[in-house]
Amino acid sequence: MRSQAPVQVISAGRVDSRRALAFGWERTKADLGFWLFATALFGGGSSVLSWIAHAAGPFGLPLLFVDLFVPIVLAIGYTQVGIDAADGQEPRVAVMWAGWRQTISFFVTGCLIGLVVLFGTLLFVVPGIIWSAQFMMAPHFVVDRKMGPLAAMRASSIVTKGIKTPLLAFTFWLTMLNLAGFLCLGVGVLVSAPVTTIAMGLVFREIVSARERELAQPDS
Fold it and tell me: Which among 6, 108, 171, 197 is least surrounded, fewest beta carbons within 10 Å?
């Protein structure tokens, strides 16, 4: 059984972005070597594989096929180690590719969310913003609870109910931090990415814990 998140970042309907990011920073520092490696692997693993495949010419075609799935598998693993770190667990390199079975679900979930948000954006923008907040936790449910796309989107709708605006504000600060990392010649992302990933994992774990009873209820 997983341990509860060691700090509380959601109260009175708001998300304490500063506290969540501070927690992410402390966890990143505690396992800095792992996070530098994992972020470099996540960001460059697919590029290296693609370069090798192209350099190998016709013999590299199998690698090009594999390269279609590598970014998704690494994204799943990176998300999971962020959740694990939020739980107080020691991150493990093996987790980076352990979630390959969720590749299709993760990909389909991302596509469905993208289509829904695009459709909502075309409907005077506001619905797209609302739906992006409503389904933002769906990929985490696919990764952490091995849910299918529709079940994950339903679960995300449940846990984000009533706190969509605070979650949008939270993701804004995550985006700004990662943008600042990119502006530091790209090197800053090696630190900003794990900080924001762990912070998101912490928020995910906390809102799920608060809505477990609703998540357990079958569809009406």
Answer: 6
Rounded Cα distance between 161 and 136, Å, is: 12
CB–CB of 103/72 below 8 Å? yes
How far apart, in whole angstroms, are the C-alpha atoms of residue 20 and residue 86? 10
Note the pLDDT tens digit of each residue in 25-43.
999 999 999 999 999 988 8
Task: Convert the pLDDT of each residue in 125-149 to its tens digit.
Answer: 888 999 999 999 999 999 999 999 9
Cβ neighbours of 146 (radius 10 Å) = 13
Sketch the domain layout of the chain as residue ranges.
Answer: 14-206
Tokens 């109260």 belong to which residue?
A: 11
pLDDT band at 220 (very low <50, low <70, confident <90, very high): very low
Q: Which residues contact 204 (CB under 8 A, 6 or more apart)?
A: 83, 86, 137, 140, 144
* CA–CA dist 38, 93 (Å, integer): 7
| 68-71 long-range Cβ contacts below 8 angstroms, 24+ apart | 69/100, 69/103, 70/45, 70/46, 71/45, 71/46
Burial-class residue 122 by CB neighbours within 10 Å (0-12, 13-18, 19+): exposed
Place of tokens 């694990």: 84
Q: What is the pTM of this model?
A: 0.88
